[in-house]
Amino acid sequence: MRANLTIEEVQNGLRAKEFSAVELTQWYQRQIKEKNPHLNAYLTLNEEALATASLVDKKISAGAKIGPLSGIPMAIKDVIVTQGIRTTAGSKILENYIPPYDATVVDKIKKQAGIILGKVNCDEFAMGSSNENSAFGPTRNSIAPDRVPGGSSGGSAVAVAADLCTYSLGTDTGGSVRQPAAFCGVVGLKPTYGRCSRYGLIAMASSFDQPGVLAKTVKDAAIVLESIAGPDRLDSSAKDKPLKKWAAEIDQDVRGMRVALPKQFLEEGLNTEVEKSVRLAAEKLTRAGAKVELVDWPLLEMALAIYYIIMPAEVSANLARFDGIRYGMTVGAEDLWSHYQQTRGQLLGPEVKRRILTGTYVLSAGYYDAYYKKADLAKKRMRQLFAQQWQKYQAVLSPTTPTTAFKIGEKTTDPMAMYLSDVYTVVANIIGAPGISVPGGTDSQKLPIGWQLMSAPWREDQMLRLAAVLEKE
Amino acid sequence: MTLSPEQIIKLGDLAKLAVTEQEASTLAVQVDDVLKYIGRVNELETADSIGQWKDTVVNTNVWRADEVRAINEAERNELLASFPSREDDFAKTAPVFKR
Predict the structure, then answer these.
(1) ipTM here
(2) Parallel, antiparallel, or unpaired for β A167-171 and A211-215?
(3) B69 in a domain, yes or no?
(4) Which residue in chain B has the smallest CA separation from A412?
(5) What domains are there in chain A, each with its CATH number?
(6) Alpha carbon distances (Å) from A283 to A277, A278, A289, A397
(7) How confident is residue B48, by pLDDT bands cut at 50, 70 and 90?
(8) Do the domain assignments include residue B29?
(9) pLDDT (tens digit, 9 = 90+) per residue, A193-207?
């Protein structure tokens, strides 16, 4: 088996009978067995993987038509529920939780007989930027094992980067697909809010959460998006918008497209090597016929503050459901009130607690006007700014992160320093737009750099075409 | 404004979250740092917010009628099996009032 196969290559290999789905699955399982003890990407393996693979092989032998994701071995972030397969959300409180249902995105993959290899590590309840907040230990960056893979979909990114699956699913609330993709040198796609169903995503901040894809190429990400997108009667925020043939149209011309490069994304805190690299990305787009313009949008300086008010507010409400009564782990107590306090106090980790408390603070009667209300108004203003700018620009270019992957332990005691690694990614979540991180080479320490593109909501087509240009040598 | 460990414990109480005194002193510094940063939203001039900015996005509820769906025995057992503490077909909890 050749390493680092893309979805297209697996599709072709299966159809041409170069290898069977069973052989392919066994190959990945051996890879996982060998590399996972060190990387800690997978938390739970799916025992049904080979059974699904043999079903796909039978279909192929019988000459039956198979779906684009049939027989493609993949991994799922552990905040996305899978029926009968343990789903921990990276938390002690769900250590033994076996969900009785599938998330819609999982259901769609299962219907095509996609091969679920297992569930991958993440920051607890998807809260974090380094994967160090998992109750099951950090995942290591496969390129530099003393460094973090980013987060919160760190396991999903490492599983793709270390070739422990063909593609993976993650979730993105403030950059949790794009930031780890940048740190691990893979592609990370966050679709428009409402493009994919959130049903079965363990909720963090419901107005920002969106499932996303980590893949080896932009085209692979587009292929997966075509299969997981669409409306859902179980999630009214998933909209019935036309689905395009994103993968087939990916090589279409970008000549004449206008791309904004905000100067606020090139300022303080940005590593100089990353900055140089983004200027190279701009040149690349220009050479392909797009027009890149430096713009000045001061409101962007508010993005991270807006995000770190609205997100914890929603976290404090969403996490209230973990009470240790209907499912999950529990801590014995004499009365109900202390049962709640002790179960949550002892089984939730420090970052989750910080966000619940921050959220409780910004929503409290005395501070609501100064924080939550202001942030909501600022969010609306941000959406209006972009609604105007999308009339003029087809995309926004920026670095995905201000720095490359940092060392394990470097920022764990300083939450604010950790939060700053989301400074460029949160914008897409605030305005509900699609975003993608594309590998942009490496820095002098050979650590991957990510280039980010955003487009107007529902215009993944434009974003993916530009991303495909950035990906080319 | 500086957040005190007592305020953290009070917030924990509101959120039904036990916070030890040791945790509270670390959390007070960390949450305070975050509050100082996010406080910058107040630099934004929103005096005109009553008029121009108030309703730039109007949120509407999307309703559908509730549907009662019967579940089969296996599904029922699966749900019951998720209870951390159980007596017959009921989830068992600690008493609401102290003895």
Answers:
(1) 0.93
(2) antiparallel
(3) no
(4) B30
(5) 7-228 (3.90.1300.10), 258-299+382-471 (3.40.190), 306-369 (no CATH)
(6) 10, 9, 10, 11
(7) low
(8) yes
(9) 999 999 999 999 999
With bands split at pLDDT 50, 70 and 90, how would you rate the model's confidence at B56? very low
Instruction: Give the one of A304, A328, A336 whose C-beta lies nearest to B96's C-beta.
Output: A336
B66 CB burial (10 A radius; 0-12, 13-18, 19+): exposed
Question: pLDDT (tens digit, 9 = 90+) per residue, A347-383?
Answer: 999 999 999 999 999 999 999 989 999 999 999 899 9
Q: How far is CA B57 from the centre of its chain?
A: 24
Give me the residue label for tokens 């993968």. Answer: A247
Residue B65 touches partner A, C-beta closer than 8 Å = no
Residue-wise pLDDT tens digits, A435-453: 999 999 999 999 999 999 9
What is the spatial distance between Cα A261 and Cα A275, in angstroms, rounded to a whole number?
12
B38 touches A at CB < 8 Å: yes
Could you tell me the pLDDT band of residue B45, with boundaries at 50, 70 and 90?
confident
The yes-or-no answer on residue A77 being catalytic is yes
Tell whether the torsion through CA atoms of A23, A25, A26 and A27 is positive or negative.
positive
Q: What is the mean pLDDT of residues A154-182?
A: 98
Edge to edge, what strands does the sheet with A258-262 contain? A42-45, A115-120, A73-77, A167-171, A211-215, A187-190, A435-442, A448-454, A395-399, A258-262, A291-295
Residues of B in contact with A264 (CB under 8 A): none
Best mutation target, A357, A363, A379, to test chain B (most B CBs within 10 A): A357
Q: Is residue B71 part of a domain?
A: no
Domains held by chain B: number: 1
| Surface of B (13-32) touching A: CB under 8 A | 13-20, 23, 27, 30-31
The H or E element containing residue B90 is strand B90-91
Question: Does some domain include residue B54?
Answer: no
Residue corresponding to tokens 């969010």: A379
Instruction: Pick B16's closest partner by Cβ from A236, A306, A341.
Output: A341
